[in-house]
Structures are given as C-alpha cells and as structure tokens.
Design brief:
flat, single chain, mainly alpha, about 55% helix
C-alpha cells in the first residue's frame, strides 16, 4: 500500500496549506468610526419614520430608508467583512449579486405599482366584481 508519507517533499498529491495571517490595515479607531456612523444612520432611519416623527414624506420615505440601509450595508461589507482589503474578484462577485438582487426588486416593485393600469377591471378583487347572470338564469332555466 502506498502512503502519502513515502512521497518526497514535493510529491504530486501533497497539499500545501498557507497558515500565514495577512493583517488588514484597520485600526480600532476605524471600527469605532464605522460603529458611530451606523448608529447615526440608525437614528436617522428612526427619525424619518412617519409613526415616530410624524413626518410625512410620501413615497420618498421608502426611497430614503432604502438609501440609508444601502449605505449601512456598504459600510458593514467594506470594513467588517474586509471587502475593502479583499481581492477584486470577490468584490465583483458581491457587486454582481447586489445588482441582480436590485433588478429583481426593481421589476417586482414596478409590477406591483403598475397593476391595474393596463386593465382596470383585472385589479378589482373578486368580492367586489359584479356577478355575471346568464339569460337562462333570469328566465328560471337551469
């Protein structure tokens, strides 16, 4: 029986594992600054919420809330997930997935927002539609 230990130092089925640690140039000050920014944006989100502040921004409130959430997610991904110091391929993979997720949300929101514009009768719930009577039902037919 062949054993992996019988191969030379550079055998073909040898697995080389690099145990070196590459430190990222992030200081504790940077982490606290990101933490403070996340707290600020969280308070901002709560402050513009209509039930809390009474501020009525209409459809802009959803846009502002999603913008703030995107900034917070970007900060977390860049610093705490170390994407700022990661390879370009990982950044492309993350950005590509976010773009496709955004497209999914965009198409879903545009579909829901425009329902009933092409055929107003199709957007009426079934319980509010007028019943359809056939002529033979009016004449007592079965």
């Amino acid at each position: 029986m062949s054993d992996h230990s019988t191969h030379g130092a550079h055998g073909h089925d040898e697995v080389v594992v690099d145990h070196t640690h590459h430190a990222h140039p992030a200081s504790a000050g940077l982490f606290f600054a990101i933490y403070a920014a996340l707290l600020f944006f969280t308070f901002l989100t709560v402050a513009i919420a209509e039930p809390v502040s009474g501020l009525h921004l209409g459809s802009a409130s959803m846009f502002i809330a999603m913008l703030v959430a995107s900034v917070k997610a970007s900060l977390v991904m860049a610093v705490f997930m170390h994407l700022k110091w990661d390879t370009a391929m990982n950044n492309i993979a993350f950005l590509g997935s976010l773009i496709f997720l955004s497209l999914l949300f965009l198409f879903t929101i545009s579909d829901v927002a425009t329902r009933g514009q092409a055929d107003p009768a199709a957007s009426t719930p079934a319980e509010y539609q007028q019943p359809v009577f056939h002529e033979y039902e009016h004449k007592g037919g079965h």
